[in-house]
Specification:
Chain A has about 625 residues and is mainly α. Chain A has 25 helices and two strands. In chain A, a hairpin with a 2-residue loop joins β1 and β2. Chain B has a single domain, classed as Orthogonal Bundle (Helix Hairpins), CATH 1.10.287. Chain B starts with 5 loop residues before the first helix and ends in a 15-residue tail after the last helix. Classes of the chains: A mainly alpha (about 625), B mainly alpha (about 100). The interface between A and B is medium-sized, with 13 and 13 residues.
Chain lengths: ~625, ~100
């Protein structure tokens, strides 16, 4: 099973290197196929590792060490991979969904100027993500974490001729770097007090201050990577990247890393229970805020982006209250249906020559029936209508908040309200885009791909994900059967506080579905039948359209002071001191040179005279010294 | 010891060197300057050989041979330059060759 993990990790890296070395020798199409093949090879490695873990006794996993990488006194870090139930599950999700998305990219990126660079980056991204989930100690995890940040920067800014894409890439990178920094600080605390960065050290007994600090640092990293409040503002902007990148980063892999981190490092969070509940609170808040903002977005990808934030809020809530398996299960189903939604949206955007404004898309379902039904499957899974995937994974998260204390009821209310919002914004999108007669814009701009809705490389992944989004949730239906909970039990057992009774489970399911369907019904009444007017409420509308003023606030607090300082320094220091010093130095040098150059007469006799005088001087000096 | 005292040889060498140095300093013709340089080198040779005999040490004679080799190559280069100057119809006056003035 360790062979599988190395294969899984190194195949995408090999793909990247091959594409980079091949350069322009490589035909354009070949780059895409190399990347796709390498990631499917990684998936095969993941399957191998999965069966290895399944057949091993006790499912405790195994660490393989390539070599000792860093050693300083008694502190030692190896180049290690860890294969255990949790990492095997993540490997399967990451490599499987990524493989489908990269296959889709072959059709989507066809004809782009810099296809090869795209595929090299995207294979590198998969490698980074796999390193993150397979890393056998905290340092390896951090390396993967940092590389994921780097490759997401490269991919978000892939269309580097667009200033907005470059700005979005920078924003994502800076926010992620902030999270990386807090994680590193947490690691310093661990090294100082426990002298190790292995995962086992998280079980070590730390004082409550130390445990809180470490957990807080890790939470900072998780919140930044997973775009939760207060570090959420980069995710919607990151939609500037190509649509498959959005599907890959913002659905299947990168943003879920925070949930993985909490599940992986849960012992320290359990020592610092307050911090863990803060994580749950951040999730609950984010799922509401993101759901509200999604109501007023007009860009198809941004609506889905906010819904991603919202769904990751659910995962944080689930993992934060101690139901790690619930969070991981929702991560899995979310990877399916969110990748599906993004890729289906990509089909629409591709067929409409890059249009992303949903107000122009009315009636698209008439010309794109396949996209329409796949998107519907994804939307129903997102809202959590049975038997689609989201139904099975979202409800246990909401139910698991019931027994943790009084704040559990607040979380519960947030979860239910979030389910309503999910139904409303998802089907607002659906009713605006797909049903009805095609709008003039659609008639004018729609162009098919040889009589189909897209290249087969694009349609196949969407179809596969459509099936997965439909049936992917049947794997677990608490409390009737819970294979994922049992699978993860050796690594991340559910806390007793997050256990709920069957009745609570059933009632929650019923309530959530009803509320979700109510959201759908409201969306239908407003956007399809137009029986209800959109509430005017200008204040709320402005608040939502400005995304609760988070961007403006961060501008005021962080950007404005530093920009002000920079302007001040430029005016008071750079211009008078630095810029003036150069010319001054130059003039002084010229003047000195003008004085000295008179000696250079160009006359041979002068030089000889100086020579002779010098020699005489030396002789005289020797004579005197004697 | 045969012949005059070492001091006489050195005196002759000093006089020769002085004439040569003066020639380099005040003459303007490139050829004459070269000649004066040769004179200075040979004054040095004379001093070397005189002292070699004075101290009964052969090294001075070897030095003199080396100086002759240097002088020969210097004449080659110097005369080559003179010929080149002449071919280009440039003046042989060293004072007019002042391109390197600062």
């Amino acid at each position: 099973m360790t062979g599988g993990s190395w294969l899984c990790l190194l195949a995408p890296l090999a793909g990247t290197i091959l594409i980079l070395l091949g350069g322009s020798w490589l035909p354009r199409v070949a780059a895409g196929w190399i990347a796709t093949t390498s990631v499917f090879v990684a998936f095969a490695g993941a399957v191998w590792a999965f069966f290895g873990v399944r057949d091993s006794a006790g499912h405790h996993g195994e660490i393989t060490t390539a070599w000792t990488w860093l050693q300083s006194g008694s502190f030692k870090v190896g180049l290690e991979l860890l294969v255990d139930p949790l990492s095997a599950m993540m490997m399967l999700i990451v490599s499987g969904v990524s493989g489908l998305i990269i296959l889709y990219s072959i059709g989507y990126m066809d004809g782009d100027e810099e296809e090869r660079r795209y595929f090299a980056y995207i294979a590198f991204f998969v490698f980074s993500m796999l390193l993150l989930v397979e890393g056998g100690n905290l340092l390896m995890l951090l390396i993967g974490w940092g590389l994921v940040g780097l490759s997401s920067y490269l991919l978000i800014g892939f269309w580097h001729e667009r200033p907005s894409a470059v700005a979005a890439a920078k924003k994502a990178f800076v926010m992620n770097a902030f999270g990386d920094a807090t994680m590193v600080l947490a690691f310093f605390v661990l090294i100082a007090h426990a002298n190790s960065l292995s995962f086992g050290v998280l079980n070590a007994h730390l004082s409550s201050t130390q445990a809180n600090l470490v957990a807080l640092g890790l939470l900072g990293g998780a919140v930044a990577k997973s775009a939760q409040i207060p570090l959420q503002t980069w995710l919607p902007d990151a939609m500037e990247g190509p649509t498959p990148v959005s599907a890959l980063i913002h659905a299947a892999t990168m943003v879920t890393a925070g949930v993985y981190l909490i599940a992986r490092t849960h012992p320290i969070f359990e020592q610092a229970r307050t911090i863990e509940l803060i994580a749950a609170g951040a999730g609950a808040l984010t799922l509401l805020v993101a759901g509200l903002i999604a109501l007023v977005q007009t860009d198809i990808k941004r609506v889905i982006a906010y819904s991603t934030m919202s769904q990751i809020g659910y995962m944080f809530l689930g993992a934060g209250v101690g139901g790690y398996a619930n969070g991981m299960f929702h991560l899995m189903t979310h990877a399916f249906f969110k990748a599906l939604l993004f890729l289906a949206a990509g089909l629409a955007i591709h067929a409409l020559a890059g249009e992303q404004d949903i107000r122009n898309m009315r009636g698209l379902g008439r010309v794109m029936p396949f996209t329409k039904w796949c998107f519907l499957a994804g939307a129903l899974a997102l809202v959590g209508v049975p038997p689609f995937a989201g139904f099975f994974s979202k409800d246990p998260i909401i139910a698991s908040t019931l027994n943790i204390g009084w704040y559990g009821y607040i979380f519960y209310a947030c979860g239910i309200a979030g389910a309503f919002l999910t139904g409303l914004y998802t089907f607002r999108l659906w009713f605006l885009v797909f049903p009805g007669e095609p709008s003039p814009f659609v008639r004018e701009h729609y162009h098919d791909h040889h009589g189909r809705e897209g290249a087969w490389t694009m349609l196949v992944p969407v179809g596969v994900l459509g099936v997965l989004a439909t049936v992917g949730g049947w794997i677990q239906w608490p409390p009737l059967w819970e294979p994922i909970t049992h699978w993860l039990a050796p690594v991340a057992p559910t806390l007793a506080a997050a256990e709920v009774s069957s009745t609570q489970e059933y009632v929650t399911s019923a309530v959530t579905v009803l509320v979700g369907v109510a959201g759908i019904a409201l969306a239908w009444a407003i956007y399809s039948e137009q029986k209800l007017a959109i509430p005017a409420a200008p204040f709320w509308r402005r608040l939502l359209e400005n995304k609760f003023y988070f961007d403006a606030l961060y501008d005021r607090i962080f950007y404005a002071p530093s920009a002000g300082t920079a302007t001040f320094l430029r005016r008071e220091f750079e211009e008078p001191v630095v810029l003036q010093t150069g010319p001054d130095l130059g003039e002084a040098t010229l003047e000195t040179g003008g004085l000295v150059r008179r000696i250079q007469t160009g006359l041979l006799r002068t030089y000889v005279l100086f020579l002779a005088a010098g020699a005489a001087g030396v002789v005289l000096a020797f004579l005197i010294a004697k | 010891m045969l012949g005059p005292d070492t001091a006489w040889y050195l005196a002759v060498a000093a006089v020769l060197f002085g004439i040569g140095a003066l020639g380099v300093l005040i003459r303007r013709n490139t050829l004459v300057v070269l000649l004066s340089l040769e004179l200075m080198l040979n004054a040095g040779n004379l001093a070397l050989i005189a002292l070699s005999r004075h101290w009964h040490n052969g090294a001075g004679q070897i030095f003199a041979l080396a100086v002759m080799a240097v002088a020969a190559s210097e004449v080659c280069v110097g005369l080559g330059l003179v010929v080149a100057l002449n071919r280009r119809d440039l003046s042989l006056d060293v004072d007019t060759l002042s391109e390197l003035r600062g």
